[in-house]
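Batch manifest, entry 17 of 40.
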Amino acid sequence: MSEQQDYMVPEPVRRADSRFARRLERLSSRAQEVDRALAAVSEGKGGLVWTAEHGMGASATLELVCEAVATHEFAQPTVTLRCRPPAGVPAPGSAVVSVVSQVSQLAGGVVPERLTRVLEPVDPGFGYLPEVAAVALAELLVATFDGATVVLVADDLHLQDELSRSVLASLVAQRHAPVVLLGTAPAGALDPSAGPFELRAVPPLAPADALHLLLVERRLAVAPHVAARLAHLLGGNPAAITQTAALLTPEQLSGGSILPDPLPAVPAVRSLFADRLAALSEAERQALLVAAVAVVDRTELVLSATGLAMEQVLDGPLAEHLVLAGGRFAFVDPRMRSLVHADARLAERTAAHVALAEAHRRTGEEDVAVWHSALATLVGDPALVPGLLRIARRHLDRGDVVWAHEVAREAASQAGAEHRAEAFAIAGVAALRSGHVQDAADWLRKASRSGDDALRACTLGPLVAALTLAEGQVPDDVLSPYLRGGRPDGLPPDAVAGVVTGVLTAARLHAERGDGVSTSQLLDTATFLASWCEDDATPARLALARSWAAVFGVGERGVVPDVELGPDHEAALQVSRALGLAADDRLDDAAQTLASVVASLAPVRDGGRWFDGPDAALTPLAEAHVRLAQALVHLWRGTLTRAADELAEAAFRLPLGLPFAGMGVAAARRLDMMTRGVVGPVATALEETCASPTSRPVRLGLLVDRAMGAAFAHHVTQAATLLELAAERERPDSARMLPLPGLDDVEAWVVAGRHDAAQRALARRRVDAKELPPSLRSATLVRADVSLAAPEDLTAPLERATRVNRTTASPYEHARTDLCAARALVRAGELQRAHGLFLSAIELFDDAGADAWTTIALDEHAEVVRLLGGPVPEDLTAAVPGAPGVLGGGAVVPGGTWPAAPRAGSMHAALGVARAGVEAQAALRPAPPDACRLAVRESDVTDEALAELRGRWADELTERELDVALLVVQGASNREAADQLYLSVRTVEVHLGRVFRKLGVRSRVELTVLAHRVGR
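Output type: structure tokens
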């Protein structure tokens, strides 16, 4: 099992001197196991052994558990000892000898004479009893570690000799010492009733874990929905996922090309199932092959094709691999399907398709029979192509675009010149609608080069969309032959309608990318060409394109004719309506509109079988637009947690990086920055697999995200500069982007002490804000006014901010306005009023799920509390004798003038302008305890030692981290440190984690030991 660790954690990381050099992440599917282990260590008793199939990562799970144990704060100290299996054949009791040796080394002494003989397993003069040895070992542990909980780590416990396992089992069972055993073993290697150990199956990797494995550990650019698909088809096995990903092309990993079906049978799959497959008879293997290539999951068809009776399947070896229920069948494990298909000879696969074709003909299902007949041919049969194209169009109309792609691709491989171009076109349209845009571009290029002018015109729209989504730029040159004025020569009306569709598609794509001029020109051209179309669909598509462009500020929204053009058209119509409602601040109506689309049009089939589910449903690309619009609406409503959850859920199912010129990438990054302060794996994966990295939403969104990161790190000048750079890259003829809440450039320049730059930013903001929804426009402008107001003029802007907040539905925007007002009051020296607004902002940020902003507000609030000398009485409003300013309503800064904020580029530095105004007050109050001196109880750490530690660690830790570290060194709990520093417990935990990482320690005990070493 130990070699399986490489599937989860690189070996150099495990050998690193500092575990925090690259902290192991707690994978979501392993979180429950980590929590269970922490509970056992807290109780100081028990044994947990994780079991798993080969390649599942039991050893990696154990490493995650050990990391969590090393960094967790327990009531009692812990000591970790490792029982490594020896090389070769283990000697009896070798694990006990290893534990005793480690204890001796840690204790710096020798084992007491009275225990030596009892613990020596090879002493011929003593009858070695595991129970007695366990008692002696417990006594040694208690005497050495003074009641600390001993954590025994036994990776590959099954490789330990039987005597060692007996001693360890007795040690855990007797409970003479606080001992917890954590180990691993292969599934089925240990008898559950043979010891006091709880055997726990390692859960398979969830989609998020598979993404982390491939993206972070294996450094592969993989789309989230591809990682999720691999996790599902490969049983969440890390080894199988890694090996399969290594065989896929970059286009397949990014989602641009369809995955092979079945997936290749990699070594990890063979090691699990090869022996079981070999144990089956030839007839049983052929029956599994028939089930593997079937596209309809009805049980009677498989029985008919194989000649087996139901009893033979239910009572024989096949029952281990096939589950039959409700008249349908399925593989127990999809990995067996891959292996069966990979190991079958060509003749065997041909025979399976022939048998299925005959079975379907007997039931009158000619379409399915044609499919199997086509796959049974060895040289191709053009006579089957019309039937294949009929099947492909049927799948396409139903929204089964993956199967439409597969069938059309097979038709293209067997077609003659008469039908080949049509097969190319259907394959390309299907690939586009499924989100496989690289495949779509390839197929549609072939169709456009076929020489059929009418077909080329009819596929112009899909070709423009596929090339844009695959290559990142709208291919205007493809449209040029049709934009020379007048009616396209020699084209029938349906082909002209295809040209109009192509022009409208380009107009929509240009609008999404910010090119308002091209959008207007193309809409006018489409309107002109539409006059030669006689169908009802073209006016509806034209009206939809105008509504779509209006969402991005190009033209006016119009009425779209009620014409039935399928679920994808209806979804696009409702998305444009919802975004229009959102732009008018009718966010609840927008959310309801999108929810109705999902309820009525979203697919309910599993996508694995033919003609299963509703007759029509959204395709993946259309659904991705709907789901992204839903996440954006929740973002604008200020419910960031829900927006992030829905966006992540959609990203693991759909090609979310394609809609709106990469807006899914920008939204995922922005939500991560607002909620976590860092960009997470889903957003990173979307960005790395995005075909439009230079599109306007992605490019400008990245600059704003970098600005937010700089601001969170208190580099305000850098943040303001990045925001100005983003603003300068806007073109005056640009269509507007879908808004994403970011950072206020006016306030950033004010905090940085650049009022001239802030005034320029305000002038620019007043122009740009006209394109924002009313509530967002009001909040943005009032924050700018508050930031720029002089202290003597601050009352009016604050009153306007209060009025704006009353009409702001978003708790996030409300919180940002409160935070802006609190900062302005701090700069004005009105700390008491700022104190209340900080508390309001903290609550609202927390309610919205903006944890990154919550942390910022908490830190700045703590500085205010520090300046006020601790908890401030509510009636502290009178002027302080001798102070040049006052606190309370209408307060002015010290000296009666408005100094510029310091140029240190930090909000904490800006707080310094208020210090002089409270120094006189501080002299009148009882002096608060030193922040680094523990006030709740006596400490044996002297003031001199604390001063020495502060000096030694000042270059590595921030001031707040120093305060937390010095309190912990004195024995303070997180709650005590929080109370003394006027912080939340969560904030103290965050600071303490940073202290551990920077100083290279793993626990409070190690931090205390390090402090004593430094103080010597």
